[in-house]
Specification:
9 helices; binds N-carbamoyl-L-aspartate; 5-stranded parallel sheet
Length: 285
């Protein structure tokens, strides 16, 4: 992780020396689900390193529109390219895509399970803004059950000496597989509150995420346990960093954008440097 973060720092400060690192290589970006930040930053990262990019953001334009399976599609495409980046609504997609992969495959989001490159850029942003990760108190607030970005971040956080506060009622509580992962790694420095208004105002990082409505079979009426309001902001420490992987919903009101604690646009910008670092790590000797 330190290697990736240091490389991202180098790209951020001056990308010119690295503009040919993957020259002659091709990345396939296969997006079976909507995306803005993730797809654009992957594509631009690879191009800034001198590579070429192919792919789709609507699988119906591939032979899947003629009924070809996902497995056959990725098996064919991997023969033409050097790396594949895949986002897919099924949790099983990554396992299927990597089953006989001979090239690196990057998970850009598999259903409601994981979104590891988002977690990398989230952690990188924390390191950049706070100067460290160890010793911090980090609140994860929102749909902890279906938010794949939060799952991946929670798993990475267990590698550090941090204190995590989960902010969600049981119905949106942390996914079981993450809790099992924490147990496996012996990570136990966490506690839970069910509403944002019960969170202490002195956390170092407040990570908000929206309710993942597109993944819920039954739509809840109005959900507001995670909505940041004036009262909460007034007692939030002046040094707290507020992050959100975006897209946001009503939990992160637009009036917050001008507050110096709101760092989600910087966070999104960091996706570029971190993804450049990741490609370099995978593809450069
Ligand atoms: C996230 C995702 O797709 O999981 N978005 C992103 O990649 N920045 C978060 C979300 O959709 O809420």
């Amino acid at each position: 992780l330190d290697w990736i973060f240091d490389a991202a720092d180098a790209f951020r400060s001056d990308r010119k020396p690295y503009s040919n690192l993957v020259a002659g290589k091709v990345a396939a970006l296969l997006f079976f689900e909507p995306s803005t930040r993730t797809r654009f930053s992957f594509e631009i990262a690879f191009k800034k390193l001198g590579g070429a990019v192919v792919g789709f953001s609507d699988a119906s334009t591939s032979s899947m529109g003629k009924g070809e399976t996902f497995e056959d599609t990725v098996r064919i495409i991997q023969q033409y390219v050097d790396v594949m980046v895949i986002r897919h609504p099924d949790e099983d997609s990554l396992r299927l895509a990597t089953a006989d992969a001979r090239i690196p495959v990057i998970n850009a989001g598999n259903g409601s399970q994981e979104h590891p490159t988002q977690a990398l850029l989230d952690l990188y942003t924390v390191r950049q803004l706070k100067g460290r990760i160890n010793g911090l108190q980090i609140a994860l607030c929102g749909d902890l059950r279906h938010g794949r970005d939060i799952h991946s971040l929670a798993i990475l956080l267990a590698l550090y000496d941090v204190e995590v506060i989960l902010v969600a009622p049981p119905s949106f509580g942390m996914a079981d597989f993450v809790q099992r992962e924490w147990e496996l790694r012996g990570f136990s420095k966490y506690s839970t509150v069910s509403r944002l208004k019960d969170l202490p105002g002195d956390v170092d990082v407040l990570y908000l995420n929206r309710i993942q409505r597109e993944r819920l079979a039954v739509q809840p009426a109005e959900v507001d346990f995670h909505v940041l309001n004036d009262d909460f902001l007034a007692r939030l420490d002046s040094k707290t960093v507020i992050l959100n992987p975006m897209p946001r919903s009503h939990e992160t009101p637009t009036w917050l954008d001008s507050d110096p604690r709101a760092k989600y646009f910087e966070q999104a910008a960091n996706g570029l440097w971190v993804r450049m670092a990741l490609f370099s790590m995978m593809l450069v000797e």
